[in-house]
Automatic annotation (TrEMBL):
Keywords for the protein's UniProt record, in alphabetical order: Membrane, Transmembrane, Transmembrane helix
Organism, as annotated: Gluconobacter albidus
Segments traversing the membrane: 21-43, 99-120, 127-145, 151-173, 185-207, 227-244, 295-316, 328-351, 363-383, 395-412
Leader sequence segment: none
Domain of life: Bacteria
Protein name: Glycosyltransferase RgtA/B/C/D-like domain-containing protein
């Protein structure tokens, strides 16, 4: 039973007739995945504030804790993420520096620890395989789709990345049969307290656990299930606030047939949900554009490759969960994807925004993980995979490593041009940030907003060049003027770099 934390027998370390060759192959794949993460991390200093940060942090300076309580009760029932962003804004106001990349780096480290450390510590799989699974998943979450809004925007990152991390941690512990009730309760609490998507996920997970307890009273540890009272109580409170939150009415957005209509939104969500299950999309989708046929075709192939790679890896390292334990997590992940699509149709009238699309596509990767774990259980029993069958074990390891390499290579081909532009433009980005803050903190009522290269790898909201005045157009520009106490702001065009050669 997962709740009892019974660990399966420890599989032997990867081996073959040529252990040095196979060990080298593991090292190569691990280095490739680490390189993907390193490249994505290297451009963190290019992260910038958007209008939300300028507006939010100006309110912190003017209203303090009263603003935080107003946000929690009337705008964003996200206890964890709102408190963290409030602390960050207070610090930024005190030191008069944005600290954006430092905040994001710490958030990444926190989320990585939540997602992977429990699995790395408790899994019975050999250490090389545990590391490969964790590092590969971290890299895969950054590939196959735009990542700017989820990974490089402070307000968006702190709301959605902890939910993804908590879900990943739960799934890894679940499939490795090491999920304790205490860990389950803490991870669910983090998800529930981070964003509305986390509320959907947490409440669906807890609902499925409730059905499990009703259907299996003899096997469900009712005495120790008191741990689940913590996320249940927090989830009910946050969900209640969310339902009565004025934002749920979607006021201020253009009317569409789904805007403000629950049934129409739920019906409209079905086709985008199915497409999200199968697709991977390298193109920008923040304006509500749909998946292309190419995105669906490549997504089916890539997710099939990923399923095969993880299935082979799980078969070798002994991850073979009972099939019945995978149904509840699968329904929680799928239900969250569906409800976030419906919520976008209801609140906005269209599919918004990039961070939501990225979040759902990464949830589809977790569904791939569950599918691979189920296939591992089925195929291991059918073919009687054992630790003594060295030839078959070696073949499975080679297939797993080749599949992971193929996925990373294919998706990095999509990302490489954007990353190259971002890396080449880092000096321009840092200079632009320094000029913005020097101009904003200078004396006088005018300032100049210098834009960087605006590489799609980390940033896609370009401010329209021109001169703006207080009380005029441009919400984000008005927020920046308010934050710096200016009445006139001159927005310069984004800096340009020589075009890079197209990726073949």
């Amino acid at each position: 039973m997962a709740e009892a934390c019974v660990k399966p027998p420890r599989s032997p370390a990867p081996r073959s007739a040529g252990p040095n060759i196979l060990g080298t192959a593991y090292g190569v794949v691990l280095c490739v995945m680490l390189s993907v993460i390193a490249l994505q991390t290297a451009i963190l200093p290019a992260s910038v504030w958007q209008g939300d940060e300028y507006d939010y942090f100006a309110n912190i300076r003017e209203h303090g804790l009263a603003f935080l309580s107003d946000r929690l009760l009337h705008w964003s029932p996200r206890p964890f993420s709102e408190i963290v962003i409030f602390a960050y804004g207070t610090l930024a106001n005190a030191v008069h520096k944005p600290l954006a990349w430092i905040f994001l780096a710490l958030t990444w480290l926190f989320c990585a620890a939540i997602a992977f450390v429990p699995f790395l510590r408790r899994s019975a799989a050999p250490i090389p395989m545990r590391l490969l699974i964790a590092v590969s998943l971290a890299a895969i979450f950054m590939l196959g789709h735009p990542s700017a809004d989820l990974f490089y925007w402070p307000m968006g990152t702190i709301a959605h990345l902890p939910v993804l991390a908590a879900a990943c941690g739960l799934i890894l512990l679940k499939i490795s049969n090491t999920l304790s009730l205490r860990a389950e309760a803490l991870l669910l609490t983090l998800a529930l307290a981070s964003s509305e998507a986390g509320v959907f996920f947490g409440m669906l997970w807890l609902g499925m656990r409730g059905f499990e307890s009703l259907g299996g009273r003899r096997t469900f540890p009712l005495g120790r299930s008191r741990w689940l009272l913590l996320p249940t109580g927090i989830g009910l409170c946050v969900f209640t606030v969310m339902i009565f939150n004025h934002r749920m009415g979607g006021s201020g957005f253009p009317f569409t047939p789904t805007h403000g209509h629950i049934r129409a939104s739920l019906a409209a969500a079905f086709r985008p949900f199915l497409k999200t299950l199968f697709a991977l999309q390298p193109d920008e989708m923040s304006s509500g554009s749909l998946f292309t046929r190419k995105a669906l075709a490549s997504g089916v192939v890539l997710k099939a490759i990923l399923t095969g790679a993880f299935t082979a890896l799980f078969m070798v390292c002994g991850i073979r969960p009972a099939l019945r334990t995978l149904m509840a997590p699968a329904l929680a992940l799928s239900g969250t994807m569906y409800l976030t699509i419906a919520a976008a149709f209801y609140a906005f009238g269209f599919l918004c925004c990039q961070r939501h699309e990225t979040f759902r596509l990464d949830f589809s990767i977790l569904l791939v993980l569950l599918l691979a774990a189920g296939l591992s259980t089925i195929l291991s029993a059918k073919f009687r995979i054992s630790s003594d069958d060295r030839k078959r074990e070696t073949t499975l390891q080679i297939c797993a490593l080749a599949g992971l390499l193929l996925f990373a290579g294919w998706t990095m081909r999509w990302r490489l041009s954007d990353l190259s532009l971002a890396l080449a433009g880092l000096p321009l980005e840092e200079a632009a940030h320094d000029r913005v803050w020097a101009s904003g903190l200078s004396a006088g009522t005018e300032m100049t907003y210098t834009q960087g290269t605006a590489s799609p790898a980390f940033y896609y909201w370009r401010w329209e060049p021109g001169t703006y005045h207080v009380g005029g157009s441009g919400w984000e520009v008005q927020s920046a003027m308010r934050y710096f106490g200016k009445t006139t702001l001159h927005v310069l065009p984004p800096a340009s770099l020589p075009p890079l050669p197209a990726v073949p």
